[in-house]
Write a structure and sequence with these properties.
The complex is a heterodimer of chains A (120) and B (240).
Chain A (H helix, E strand, L loop, with lengths): L1 H23 L5 H19 L1 H11 L4 H55 L1
Chain B lengths: L8 E7 L6 H11 L4 E6 L6 H7 L3 E4 L6 H15 L3 E4 L11 H10 L4 E5 L11 H18 L11 E4 H9 L6 H11 L4 E5 L14 H26 L1
Parallel strand pairs in B: 1-2, 1-4, 2-3, 5-7
Antiparallel strand pairs in B: 4-6, 5-6
Helix pairs in contact in B: 3-6, 5-7, 5-8, 7-8
The chains are: A mainly alpha (120), B alpha/beta (240).
The structure holds guanosine-5'-diphosphate and magnesium ion (MG).
Chain lengths: 120, 240
């Protein structure tokens, strides 16, 4: 149990460092780092505060604290991943609309130029 | 390219890497429908599709990156709607649809009062050479769509489709990205629009091969089934 908590503490610290580093290097945008921060911090708190972990484990009806920790971590990361899918879908929708708009504008611009050429 | 007559018609041809076929497709359409506006939508092909289409006498709408069939068709619908066309007929760039069927679809668009006309390869005993999986898929979707549409549809996967301006307006806003035909039917149903099927011939491809392989057929079925589901749910929610 102790070792597992040490391990998850290390993991959450590493994740925090990675996220901070990535923001500084502008590899990810601040608004997309928030959910990773949330996940890493929750992980850190639970690893350093066994009482809270036990209480949570009790809520979920899981007698075994390590199992509860894995369960909670898994859920947190699933949530972050799902949020990413939502964001990607939004981006894709915007991209489709933009692509079609660019194509249509280009088309209409060419036909305007074509008309000018035949008139002038 | 501007619509001049009250029954203005635009023929759109989605094409992806069809340089070997699209030229003849455009020429054939021009023979059958002299003077009609033809728009080839080039979905960022890697070959000479756009140039070949232009040379054959079509206008070309070039997408700056590859969207997929539905995205390309929707771009055509949007442009047609903005330019003020009354009717749009979509025909494939691989030469599988016979342009001699276009006038029949056009007539049905003008006279049937339906918002959508489907060129169906299974009416009047016509049978089309399709793969086994594909044939099963079509049967399956006929069965799925029957209760949703409240009436049978023989060829729900047909890409030989005409729409009027009402449908254009709807599709400009909402159209599936990848495999559009079946979902589009459900979108129409949500609006309580009507469709009619007219018999059409289906030919072998002029060149190349279908982008829908056996493996993709399974992906197709699950993908489209989900799309249909989502659209039906939207429909139910609105009715309440
Ligand atoms: N714009 C666009 N057109 C496509 C794409 N894939 C296929 N098409 C076109 O859609 C039509 C039908 O495609 P095809 O592969 O023949 O499908 P099938 O006839 O249903 O077997 C042809 O005109 C293709 O060029 C795509 O990704 N983007
Ligand atoms: Mg084909």
């Amino acid at each position: 149990m102790e070792e597992l908590l040490d391990f998850t503490t290390g993991m959450s610290l590493a994740l925090l460092a990675l996220v901070l580093f990535s923001i500084r290097r502008q590899h990810i945008r601040v608004e997309y780092s928030v959910s990773w921060f949330g996940a890493a911090l929750s992980l850190l708190v639970l690893s350093q505060w066994p009482a809270a972990l036990h209480t949570l484990a009790g809520w979920f009806g899981i007698g075994n604290a390590p199992l509860a920790l894995i369960f909670i971590v898994g859920t947190l990361f699933l949530l972050v991943l799902f949020r990413l899918s939502v964001i990607i879908s939004d981006l894709k929708d915007a991209n489709i609309a933009l692509t079609q708009r660019v194509a249509i504008l280009e088309y209409r611009l060419e036909s305007v130029h074509g008309q000018k050429a035949t008139q002038g | 390219m501007t619509p001049d007559r009250p029954d203005s018609l635009l023929i759109i041809v989605p094409a992806y890497n069809e340089e070997a076929a699209v030229g003849r497709v455009v020429e054939e359409i021009r023979q059958v429908m002299p003077g009609v506006d033809i728009l080839v939508i080039d979905d960022c092909s890697l070959d000479q599709t756009a140039a070949v289409a232009r040379r054959a006498g079509a206008q070309v709408l070039s997408l700056p990156y590859h969207l997929g069939l539905g995205g390309a068709v929707q771009a055509g619908y949007k442009l047609a709607y903005e330019l003020g066309y009354e009717y749009v007929i979509r025909t494939d760039g691989d030469g599988q649809h016979d342009p001699r069927d276009i006038p029949r679809i056009y007539e049905a668009l003008k006279n049937s009062g339906c918002q959508m006309v489907i060129g169906s390869r299974f009416l009047e005993g016509n049978s089309a050479p399709t793969s086994l999986v594909r044939g099963l898929g079509i049967r399956f979707f006929r069965w799925v769509l029957r209760p949703i549409l409240g009436r049978p549809v023989r060829d729900p996967t047909s890409g030989f489709v005409g729409v009027n301006r009402e449908a254009l307006q709807v599709f400009s806003k909402s159209f599936p990205l990848e495999y559009p035909e079946i979902e589009a039917l459900v979108v129409l149903q949500r609006k309580r629009f009507r469709f009619v099927e007219v018999p059409c011939r289906m030919r072998p491809r002029l060149a190349g091969r279908s982008t829908i392989t056996v493996l993709k057929s399974f992906y197709y079925i699950i993908h489209v089934l989900l799309g249909v589901f989502v659209n039906v749910l939207k429909y139910e929610r609105r009715r309440r």
